Amino acid sequence: MKEIGSLLTLLFLTIPGFAQEVEMADTMRSEGKIYVVVSIILTILGGLIFYLYTIDRKATRLEKKADEFSKK
Amino acid sequence: MKSAWWKILAVLLLIYTVVGGLLMEVPRLVILNESIRALYFHVPMWFGMVVMFLLSVIYAIRYLRHHDPLNDRISAGFAHTGLIFGLLGIGTGMIWANYTWGTPWHGDPKQNGSAITTLIYFAYFVLRGSLDNQEQRARLSAVYAIFAFAAMIPLIFIIPRLTSSMHPGSGGNPGFNMYDLDSTMRPVFYPAVTGWILLGVWIASVRIRIQTAEEKILDHEYERNR
């Protein structure tokens, strides 16, 4: 029983070990620098979407103007 | 802002895509490594392109049935947005390929197929630009849009699956099996696809609305000066 127990412990200890073998940006994540990247991309996305929103409002204004024109 | 809920949904989904796509757990695979996250951004470009072109062909058929110039403008607007998605898909794919396949252009059947598709749609705009008569332009480009869409399906969905391709899901296998072994990527991937498609519809709709309003103003001025 003891052998099986130690074998299982060994197995559970090595499984995460196998997973770590493929190199990922783990250091960058542990340092928290990934949040810098996330916030930069979110800023760009937010800026572009805000720009699209202003163009959308401009389109609404133009539509109103066109409707007034055709009523005249 | 006309009925804004789906635009807000698009924004929320895209924010979630960036946060979840960069922070959530992904499968650890050799060669791909951390670049597997590009799937959340590169593949939705193609989904976006196909949906935009599908909407374009639907409105092209509607134009041929009803001859409403609005249908022509909608069809062209979606084709335009779809082409942007396609170019972004090729660009992001080339960056990704450079680091995982070794070269930006591998001559992969899916790369070639998507390149031909974008060229076909470039020709669509050349056709539109070369005709002055509005009715003629609308009719010819509607017919062309149907052929362009019909050419796209074998180019990016069928041929790459018949031959060997570096893209996953080629050579007879269905789509995403390689990535979806543990389904860890689905919770970000599907919202990402939905978000990008909604953003594409939003961009196209703004373009179409501006053109429609301009046409209205121009028509009115033409009537008044007659």
Distance between the ends of chain B: 35 Å
Order of helices and strands of chain B: HHHHHH
> What is the beta-strand fraction of chain B?
under 5%
Percent of sequence in beta strands of chain A: under 5%
Question: Regarding quaternary structure, how should these chains be classified?
Answer: heterodimer
Radius of gyration of chain B in whole Å, from Cα? 20 Å
Number of strands of chain B: 0
List the helices and strands and how they pair.
The complex is a heterodimer of chains A (72) and B (226).
Chain A: H1 2-20, H2 26-30, H3 34-71
Chain B: H1 5-23, H2 39-66, H3 69-100, H4 109-129, H5 134-162, H6 186-225
Annotation keywords:
heterodimer; A: about 70 residues; mainly alpha; about 0% strand; B: about 230 residues; about 75% helix; globular
Walk me through this protein's architecture.
The complex is a heterodimer of chains A (72) and B (226). Chain A is mainly alpha-helical. Chain A has a domain at 23-72. In chain A, 86% of the residues lie in helices and 0% in strands. The radius of gyration of chain A is 29 Å and the shape is rod-shaped. The termini of chain A are far apart. The model of chain A has no long low-confidence stretch (mean pLDDT 81). Chain B has 226 residues and is mainly α. Chain B has one domain (38-225). Chain B is 75% helix and 0% strand. Chain B has 6 helices and no strands. In chain B, helix 2 packs across helix 5 (134-162). The model of chain B has no long low-confidence stretch (mean pLDDT 90). Classes of the chains: A mainly alpha (72), B mainly alpha (226). The interface between A and B is medium-sized, with 30 and 28 residues.
What would a concise description of this structure say?
With 72 residues, chain A is mainly α. Chain A has helices spanning 2-20, 26-30, 34-71. Chain B has one domain (38-225).
